[in-house]
Amino acid sequence: MFWIFSDFLFKLRRKFFCQASPFICNAYNLSPSVSIKNTAIIGLPYVRGNVSISPGSVLVSLRDGNALGIHQPCRLVATSGFIEIGSHFRASGVCIYSSLSVVIGDHVTVGPGVTIIDDDMHPIDPDRRRLNLQGAPPQPIKIGNNVWLCKDVTILKGVEIGDRSIIGAGVVVSKSIPPDTIVTHADAAIALKNLHSNQS
């Protein structure tokens, strides 16, 4: 019985945010460095720095906002770089951090728990870490059109993901992925055209 009431409350909150999204977008756009256009904002994401999101996108930040569960609001943080997101971007509880540049294409789908970060944050050398010194320089990230990043994927600096590729759940991507590729773990990349030919 309780789950019925809980589900009702969630749907009510989601409907409220859908109706309020134009006003919420305008509130974020009060920052001169933020541009969020015609985006459904379900919950309240954390947005800081030079961030732009094109129309038709959806950001879900409500806890348990989908069947797999969302454990944090969406976080889009550009400390000294920028984050540029194309149209019809759909994400649940994503964390994107940029010290240089993160560019995401159109129609990209991102599952809960995904992290995209163009900076190591800390140096490898332990002495430098103790002194709180900067690590290696950041490198840009580019994600193409129609890409699907499944749950708990991590995209590291310098990575480019080609159009229509799919990154499987839990994969840490440290090398660029060509277009039309399925990656099921760090060392396995399957070309979509080969996958289709094996099924026929």
| CATH third-tier fold name | UDP N-Acetylglucosamine Acyltransferase, domain 1
Task: Assign the CATH class.
Answer: Mainly Beta
H/E element order: HEEEEEEEEEEHEEEEEEEEH
Structure summary, number of beta strands:
18
* Helical fraction: 10-25%
User: What is the CATH architecture descriptor?
Assistant: 3 Solenoid
Q: Would you identify the regions where 5 or more consecutive residues have pLDDT less than 50?
A: none
Q: Oligomeric state of the chains?
A: single chain
Gyration radius, to the nearest Å?
18 Å
| Domain unit count | 1
Q: What number is the mean pLDDT? A: 86
Report on this structure.
It is a single chain. The chain is of the alpha/beta class and 200 residues long. It has a single domain, classed as Hexapeptide repeat proteins (UDP N-Acetylglucosamine Acyltransferase, domain 1, 3 Solenoid), CATH 2.160.10.10. Helix content is 20%, strand content 33%. It is built from three helices and 18 strands. The strands form two sheets. Strands 1, 3, 5, 7, 8, 10, 11, 13, 14 and 16 form a ten-stranded parallel beta sheet that branches. An eight-stranded mixed beta sheet has the order 2-4-6-9-12-15-17-18. It is globular and about 50 Å long.
Question: Can you describe this structure in just a few lines?
Answer:
By secondary structure, the protein is an alpha/beta fold. The chain has three helices and 18 strands. It starts with a helix and ends with a helix.
Jot down its keywords.
alpha/beta, ten-stranded parallel β-sheet, UDP N-Acetylglucosamine Acyltransferase, domain 1
